[in-house]
Amino acid sequence: MSAKAIFCTGVLVLSLIFKFWLIAEMEITDDPDDPSNYVGQILVSHPSFFGPGTGYAGKLFQVLGIPFRDGIEVLYLLACLLTVRALFAWPTKSCLALGLFLFVSFNPVPEELFSHVMSDQVWLVEVMLGISLYIAFTETRTRWRCIYLALAAVCLGFSTLTRTTLAPLLAGFLLWALIGGTLGWLKNRGKTLDPQAVIGLMVCLVSIGILNYSICLSNEIRYGYFGLSVFDCREYRAFYTCLQSVGDPTGDKYYPVDDHRLGLVAQAGPASRKFVEDMRTDQRFRTVSQETFGKYDFSLGWFHFVVFANAFPNGNLPEGFAMFKEVEQEIAKASAENRLKVRSIFPLPDCRIPIVLSALPGALQDETALVTSVPSQYAWAWGGGEPKFENSLFTQALTRRAVTPSPLRETIGKALCAFYSIVYAEMLPGLILGVGVYLACSAYSWKKISATSFHFPAQHLFGVLYVVLFAWYVFFHASGFPAFARYVLFQNVMLLLLIVYYFRESWRMVRDREPLSSQTSSHVQTD
Question: Which residue from 271, 385, 448, 492 has the fewest beta carbons nearer than 10 Å?
Answer without folding.
Answer: 385
